[in-house]
Design a protein that fits this description.
alpha+beta; two-stranded antiparallel sheet
């Protein structure tokens, strides 16, 4: 099993989660984070750290977010690993909770 970063991370990209990850499974894109499902050890540490509540266990993934499991796997192969917390985008709070953000995902 793995944890999955979902739509609410887009344009928020808080990095609190990467600080607690013991296996460095987070990958950073321009405006989104992805979890490498091959690296994730299901430790549960990242989920409560996400201010945007955008991380779910694969087993608890809402049906409308299921496509993010494959998307995380795909993007984790393309993007570099991130291991240290960074400042969020200046407008992160404005984007937190907005629906239909997939169209804003930058690859």
């Amino acid at each position: 099993m793995t944890y999955v970063v979902t739509e609410n991370c887009i344009k928020c990209k808080y990095t609190d989660c990467v600080e607690v990850c013991p296996v460095d499974c987070f990958h950073e894109g321009p405006n989104f984070l992805a979890i490498d499902p091959e690296e994730c050890i299901d430790c549960t540490l990242c989920e409560p750290e996400c201010p945007a509540e955008a991380i779910y266990s694969e087993d608890d993934l809402p049906a409308e977010q299921e496509h993010f499991l494959e998307l995380n796997a795909e993007l984790a192969q393309k993007w570099p690993v991130i291991t240290e917390m960074k400042d969020p985008p200046e407008d992160a709070e404005e984007w937190d909770g907005k629906p239909d953000k997939l169209q804003h995902l930058e690859r």
